[in-house]
Amino acid sequence: MTDKDDVAEALDEMAGLVVRHLSERGGLSATALSCLSRLDRDGTVRLTALAAAEGVSQPSVSQLAQRLERQDLLRRVADPTDGRASLVEITGAGRALLAERRRIRHDRLAGLLDTLPPEDEDTLREALRRALPVVRRLAEAGTERGFR
Fold it and tell me: Model confidence over 13-58: pLDDT tens digits?
């Protein structure tokens, strides 16, 4: 096993731990939450663009959009450049749901950090200070290579 394999394995384990222990979906699928987050981050888009960005089929994202629209988490709006087409955008309720989820994750993490002895918290803080910029660059590289 190479050093890169060790790093890849550690990052994979960390990602799994975060997903298992900190995710609170609130009845929504990971795809639904990812679509809402993308709309919040990127703004109004056509369903075809959302499907491509999320790596799901157009029919799947269409059905998902219908469900999210019924829950008032997104809405369809007319495409100003093409009267035959529509766009989707996140609603205020969708933004509020994402903000609440972020707050819950933050509170869970803060509570977990309270269980650490001060020296472990200091070690984690220093490791994250160094690792976070690197992980952000990895995420950007992944985006450039077509990974979500």
Answer: 988 887 777 776 667 888 999 999 999 999 999 999 999 988 899 9
Type of residue at 115: T
pTM, 2 dp:
0.79
The alpha carbon torsion through 86, 38, 62, 142 (nearest 10 deg) reads: 120
Spatial contact of 68 and 94, defined as CB atoms under 8 Å apart = yes
Question: Rounded to an integer, what distance in angstroms lies between the CA atom of residue 52 and that of residue 47?
Answer: 9
Strand partners, 77: 87
Give the number of other CB atoms < 10 A from CB of residue 81: 8
H or E, element range at 141:
helix 118-144
Q: Are 113 and 121 in contact (CB under 8 A)?
A: yes
The one-character DSSP state at 74 is E
- CATH number of the domain to which 86 belongs: 1.10.10.10
Residue written as token pair 């799947």: 60
Q: Which residues contact 16 (CB under 8 A, 6 or more apart)?
A: none
Asked if 96 and 122 sit in the same domain, the reply is no
Query: Could you give the C-alpha distances from 38 to 53, 59, 106, 108, 121, in angstroms and in order?
Result: 9, 18, 20, 23, 32
Helix 47-54, helix 58-70: angle, nearest 10: 110
